[in-house]
Amino acid sequence: MPSQSIPLRCFSKFLCAVTLFLILLGALVKSTESGLSVPDWPTTYGKFMFAYPLDKMAGGIKYEHTHRMLASIVGLLTLILTLWLLRIQTLPVWIKRLGIFAFLTVVAQGVLGGLTVKFFLPVWLSTVHGVLAQTFFLIVILIAYALSMERRYRWNMEDESYNPRVLRSAIILMVMIYVQLIIGNVMRHAQAGLAVPDFPTMGGTIFPAFDQAWLNRINAYLFENNLAPVTIGQVGVHLLHRFWALLILINILWLNTIVYKECLDRPLLIKTLYWLNIAVILQIAFGIATVLAHKEVYTTTLHVTMGAIVLGLSFLMVLRVSPLTWRQFKTLLIKR
After folding, report:
1. Which of 59, 94, 221, 239 gives a 20 to 30 Å CA spacing to 278?
2. What is the three-class DSSP state of 150?
3. Prior bond to 42 cis, omega within 30?
4. Residues 6 or more apart in contact with residue 154 via CB below 8 angstroms
């Protein structure tokens, strides 16, 4: 890898960090219900976004407008990264194409963000906007890893062992986490975050009844705590989110079993799995706290942000257990 790619590697990692912070700000906008605090787009109360007076950024405007400005900065950084990748002739074509794809994704994300405002935050559009943000995060992680010294070192290794069981388990875990983030986005934008307001019980019972009396008991509790009533559909989405989290926990325990049994000679995998375990534990803790604290703003925001971190770490795990070429990857994936 040429010497001029050293600052490029740093820049790609910086973009990953800024993207994660943008996801945090987006979560804060939703947690504070500030999505329509600025009702026009792409302007801010009729002014050019970066010309809006700072002294008027109060209340929900502070969160929504800051989110918009940082999103614009991320778009600019992505454009710079893409042009930088295209400029280096020695880089593989697939990395350059990935840069173009990243730029198109961030543009689509910006347009979707604007449309959510124009159409007054419809659930499906807001959900797609949230999921695409996580997808863009994975793309920039992939670019950063493709440029990394770690990948260069692995490329120069003569004999690197791969384990098909670990690869398949890591991919399944990452896909499950991605699906969980989709469910979580639907739950948040459908106002179902407190559809089941107790834990570890569910509507006062260990096993949900899914009948009218059970739903009435939930809504009575919500009414007593000045919270909005919910429908059985909202309850179903909420419980699906909890159930899927349990499946993810079981899956990561299985992945731990395989890795610690068959990959002790790969310290980098052990380290990645260690941090993934911590992130999952924190994510579960934030999820429980979100319910018990009745969606307190900062707890809820941290829960969403930690979800992105868990997804990123699971993707990094996949990258580190995968071969470096697509042909080897496909061969290993179907290998017994």
Report:
1. 239
2. helix
3. yes
4. 160, 324
d(CA 170, CA 255): 7
The torsion defined by the Cα of 110, 112, 116 and 121, in degrees rounded to 10, comes to -120
- Per the prediction, the chain carries an average pLDDT of 93
Contact residues for 96 (Cβ-Cβ < 8 A; gap 6+): 85, 86
What is the 8-class DSSP label of residue 295? S
Work out the angle at residue 286's Cα, subtended by the Cα atoms of residues 281 and 288, and round it to the nearest 5 degrees. Answer: 95
> How crowded is residue 316: how many other Cβ atoms within 10 Å of its Cβ?
21
Which of these, 259, 327, 333, 332, lies nearest to 94 by C-alpha position? 327
Count how many Cα atoms sit within 13 Å of the Cα of residue 205 in the half-sphere of its side chain.
11
The verdict on pTM exceeding 0.90 is: yes
CA–CA separation, 150 and 46 (whole Å): 48
d(CA 22, CA 228): 29
**3-class DSSP assignment, residue 202:** strand
CA distance 272 to 312: 11
What tokens does 122 get? 């419809």
pLDDT tens for the chain, residues 1 to 336: 444 578 999 999 999 999 999 999 999 999 999 989 999 998 999 998 888 888 888 889 999 999 999 999 999 999 999 999 999 988 999 999 999 999 999 999 999 999 999 998 899 999 999 999 999 999 999 999 999 999 888 888 766 678 889 999 999 999 999 999 999 999 999 999 999 999 999 999 999 999 999 999 999 999 999 999 999 999 999 999 999 999 999 999 999 999 999 888 888 999 999 999 999 999 999 999 999 999 999 999 999 999 999 999 999 999 999 988 778 777 877 776
DSSP state at residue 226 = T
Asked whether the CA dihedral 166, 168, 171, 172 is positive or negative, the reply is: negative
Residue with tokens 């792409």: 42
